[in-house]
Amino acid sequence: MGPHSLSSLLNYHSHTCFLEELFFLLSLPHHHLFPPHHPKNTKKHLIVDALSIFVFVRGMHVYELITLIFFYRWWEELGLWQDLNLARNQPLKWYIVPMVSLANPTMSQQRIDLTKTVSLIYIIDDIFDIYGTLEELTLLTEAVNKWDISTIEQLPYYVKSSFKAVFDTTNEIAHRVYEKHGFNPIKSLRKSV
């Protein structure tokens, strides 16, 4: 895929119909997306089934590409890698873990959420390994245990911005889970942080 085709793919206005159709397809359950399998299927029917699945998965990959671009924007706007000049800045590498572990094509949002989580784990690990003093790390650990953003005022800017990113991302994921499933996982997510 050349640079012109990628830029044209990302031009939202020229692909509004495609995106609307893709979002409609993603809202359907699996049994509405693919032709039914019958014992009397011929090779032709199997090829049609395979092509339908291929087109669906390809559409998911295009959607995922667009979503990853929004992840890069999120990552750039956080600016954590700029505040911590020795911190790892490898968003594509961080996406590999969710891509492999959540291979189901319909789990795109979960892959993006897990990519955000993995990126923040790397940043916090860098703070603990490279940047933080024992006193700062103790205060950061207490702030995480209390789960209160106001407890980080005495910390340096890079620790504040990192904790705020963890706090906001965790609450964002919890809110999304609550809207979709009616369950608020914030206590479980706080324990995992």
In short:
By secondary structure, the protein is an all-alpha fold. The protein has helices at 3-10, 16-27, 30-33, 43-78, 80-83, 91-101, 108-131, 134-146, 157-181, 186-192.
Could you explain the architecture of this structure?
The chain is mainly α and 193 residues long. Helices cover 75% and strands 0% of the residues. Helix 2 crosses helix 4, helix 6 crosses helix 7 and helix 7 (108-131) runs antiparallel to helix 9. The two termini are 39 Å apart.
Low-confidence stretches: 1-15
Percent in helix: over 70%
Give helix and strand order, one letter per element, not per position.
Answer: HHHHHHHHHH
Sum up the overall morphology in one term. Answer: elongated
Radius of gyration: 21 Å
Determine the N-to-C terminus distance.
Answer: 39 Å
Biggest sheet statistics:
none
Q: What structural class do the secondary elements suggest?
A: mainly alpha
What fraction of residues sit in β-strands?
Answer: under 5%
Mean pLDDT: 75
**Strands, total number:** 0
So how many helices? Answer: 10
List descriptors.
about 190 residues; mainly alpha; 10 helices; elongated; disordered N terminus
Write the layout of secondary structure elements.
Elements: H1 3-10, H2 16-27, H3 30-33, H4 43-78, H5 80-83, H6 91-101, H7 108-131, H8 134-146, H9 157-181, H10 186-192
